Amino acid sequence: MQISCETVAQELRRRGHEAQVIQVKPAKEDHLRSWYHTYVVVRKKGGRETVVDPNFLAQFQVARPTRAFQGVVDRLPPEFVGRIDKLLVVARFLADRAMASLQESGLNVPPWRQRDAILLKWAPTPKASVARFGKST
User: Fold this and answer.
1) Cβ count near 76 (within 10 Å)
2) Closest-CA residue to 90 (of 80, 100, 99, 102)
3) How many angstroms separate the CA atoms of 114 and 98, rounded?
4) Using CA atoms, how far apart are residues 93 and 17, in angstroms rounded to an integer?
5) Taking Cα atoms as reference points, which of 25, 43, 59 lies closest to residue 134?
6) Pairing with 30, which of 20, 59, 109, 118 sits 20 to 30 Å away (CA)?
């Protein structure tokens, strides 16, 4: 079940946090490799940001996963809450395992399933459109 980022941000704001919905639209040259992605950023005192992606694990679902990859996925929660640098480490790991799973299953790896394309969802290129929605507290 997908959870709305706007719902998450509203609840965080209701509880007194500074939360914004971030929507990343890929740059024109990346439109085949990356799709729109939405997540929440919570700014803490001192300017430190925490990423809340309620649908993080869904970004790594693949057709006919291998047992090894499914075993990794089954051990993880569906959401991610943490610093962007930690998210990118986990995303790199999962993207590599997802690509290997597709290849081991005899499937081609489409452009949007390649590691660099997956990482664009949270670390877009400078040409990508990044919109921030929601009031700060």
Assistant:
1) 13
2) 80
3) 9
4) 30
5) 43
6) 20
Measured in whole angstroms, the distance separating CA 50 from the mean position of its chain's CA atoms is 13
Q: Max alpha carbon distance in the chain (Å)?
A: 50
Tell me: the pLDDT tens digits for 81-132?
Answer: 999 999 999 999 999 999 999 999 999 998 888 898 889 889 876 666 677 7
Q: Hey, how many other C-beta atoms are within 10 angstroms of the C-beta on 48?
A: 9
94/73 Cα distance (integer angstroms):
8
CB 20 within 8 A of CB 12: no
DSSP helix/strand/coil, 39: strand
Predicted model pTM: 0.85
DSSP code at position 44: P
Alpha helices in 2-83 (DSSP H): 5-14, 67-74
Instruction: List own/partner pairs for 41-45 with CB under 8 A and 24 or more apart.
Output: 41/132, 42/12, 42/17, 42/18, 43/18, 43/19, 43/136, 44/18
